Amino acid sequence: MEYSVAPETLARTIWCEKNFCCLRQGSCENCARCEIVGENAINALYLRNRKSPDCPYHFDFGSAYLCTCPTRYAIYKQSGS
After folding, report:
1. Which helix (H) or strand (E) holds 59?
2. What's the rounded Cα separation, in Å, for the pair 20 and 39?
3. Which of 3, 45, 46, 53 could form a disulfide with 38 if both were Cys (CB 3.0 to 4.6 A apart)?
């Protein structure tokens, strides 16, 4: 499945090191996208586990794992996953 994300969103995703492969194949570098369990009010996603600690948009906040990638957030809003 391919996702359509606004050019402004892609432009804000300046730290993507994987050439936006999540848009083309639903995964990054042959890994499934991080599993989302919810979102907060400031465009951050709660992740089920610490699957991609090398991603510049992934960080730990206490016992929570968060994703702040603008493109991943847009995909989540489109697909619910």
Report:
1. strand 58-61
2. 21
3. 46
Report angle CA 19, 16, 69 to the nearest 5 degrees: 125
Give the span between the Cα atoms of 2 and 64, in whole angstroms: 29
Structural element, H or E, at residue 65: strand 64-67
What string of DSSP letters covers 22-43? HHHHSEETTEEPPPEEEE-TTS
User: In the beta sheet, which residues pair with residue 28?
Assistant: 31
For CA atoms 18, 32, 25, 58, the dihedral sign is negative
Quote the pTM value. Answer: 0.84
The Cβ of residue 47 has, within 10 Å, a number of other Cβ atoms equal to 22
pLDDT tens by residue, 9-54: 999 999 988 888 888 765 666 666 788 999 987 789 999 887 666 7
